[in-house]
């Protein structure tokens, strides 16, 4: 049993690589701050905590008006471009950590990440929700969650090994490249979403 819709397939595969990218350094992020930014464990904990707060609060507030804006424009072209550009914005973050030397760099990159995710998440769920295969909704949402878990679980261990045997720089470069690949995969949905958007414009749903 698998998704038959091309859009759903591509977006789940893209999501796998996206979560794999950030899963690489998620478990060792506080360690990176302690060793490379603050040089102090207590200060590193403080920076990690406040950076997480900055991310979640900013993302939570700005994704609501973004979602409302996208709902007012019923075609899927704007959904696609918000999702794609938001994803590209998140690609900046791992590469940005390569040049981080102070706590404010971490806070700034978390704000960038929040903006990218706020642009990415509402249209991602909207598109998946519209194109999920009828009669396979629970399976495909479960598959999406499973993909997230596998990606972050495996790459969490890989990230730890990369720190032990390579460097933090290697993780961030690898994560940035994987995330960029995940963003580019979304381009394979563009033609189908444009076609679906045109079809919806000509014959609105729930009117047949």
- Which CATH architecture would you pick? Up-down Bundle
Biggest beta sheet summary: none
Query: Mean of the pLDDT scores?
Result: 85
Radius of gyration over alpha carbons? 18 Å
User: What's the total helix number?
Assistant: 8
Q: What is the third-level CATH name, the topology?
A: Growth Hormone, Chain: A
Class derived from helix and strand content = mainly alpha
What is the helical fraction, as a range of percent?
A: over 70%
What form results from the Cα inertia axes? globular
How many strands?
0
What is the C-level CATH assignment?
Answer: Mainly Alpha
Distance between the termini: 29 Å
Order of helices and strands: HHHHHHHH
Query: CATH superfamily membership, which one?
Result: MFS general substrate transporter like domains
Total number of domains: 1
What percentage of the residues does DSSP assign to strands (E)?
A: under 5%
């Amino acid at each position: 049993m698998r998704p038959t819709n091309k859009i759903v397939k591509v977006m789940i595969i893209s999501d796998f690589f996206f979560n794999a990218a950030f899963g690489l350094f998620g478990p060792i992020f506080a360690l990176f701050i302690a060793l490379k930014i603050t040089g102090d464990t207590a200060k590193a904990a403080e920076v990690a905590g406040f950076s997480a707060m900055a991310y979640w609060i900013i993302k939570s507030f700005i994704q609501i008006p973004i979602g409302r804006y996208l709902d007012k424009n019923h075609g899927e072209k704007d959904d696609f471009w918000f999702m794609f550009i938001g994803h590209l914005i998140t690609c900046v973050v791992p590469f940005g950590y390569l040049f981080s030397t102070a706590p404010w760099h971490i806070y700034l990159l978390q704000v960038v990440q929040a903006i990218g995710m706020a642009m990415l998440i509402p249209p991602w769920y909207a598109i998946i929700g519209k194109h999920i295969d009828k009669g396979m909704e629970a399976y495909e949402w479960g598959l999406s969650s499973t993909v997230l878990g596998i990606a972050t679980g495996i790459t969490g261990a890989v990230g730890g090994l990369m720190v032990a045997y390579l460097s933090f720089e290697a993780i961030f470069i690898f994560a940035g490249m994987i995330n960029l690949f995940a963003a580019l995969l979304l381009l394979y949905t563009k033609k189908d979403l444009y076609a679906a958007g045109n079809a919806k414009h000509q014959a609105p749903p729930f009117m047949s």
